[in-house]
Amino acid sequence: MNMKIIIISILAVAVVAGGAMLVISGASNSSSQTVDNVSMVGGKQIITISAKGGYSPRLTNAKAGVPTVIKMNTQGTFDCSSAIVIPSLGYRSNLPPSGETLIDVPPQNAGTALQGLCSMGMYSFSINFN
Length: 130
Prior knowledge:
The protein is built from one helix and ten strands, in the order H-E-E-E-E-E-E-E-E-E-E. The protein is an alpha+beta fold. The strands form two sheets. Strands 1, 2, 3, 5 and 8 form a five-stranded mixed beta sheet that branches. It has a five-stranded mixed beta sheet with strand order 4-10-9-6-7, with no helix packed on it.
């Protein structure tokens, strides 16, 4: 009987520890990864960001001094990430549940970080201009 309790306790601790490690490693990777979501079209820099349950990617590196368009894509988005705010641009909008919204951004100086948030402040994305 004691051996059975010990084995069950060890398995429970291993499962909890493994789950905690997965959650911690997943959270740290998702916030620091950058994705190639920037393209140049007709002399403008196009940055594509998806909004659904947050923003993806959360971090974008872009070129400074270039007219920029943020292309927000939604697909069945009914959470607070559909209500976007970009404070430094004075931009606030409700994105459609599905579709594409283009946001014009004037050329930014090198070292500028543009931050977008959901209306509740739960989700965010950043664009670093270098």
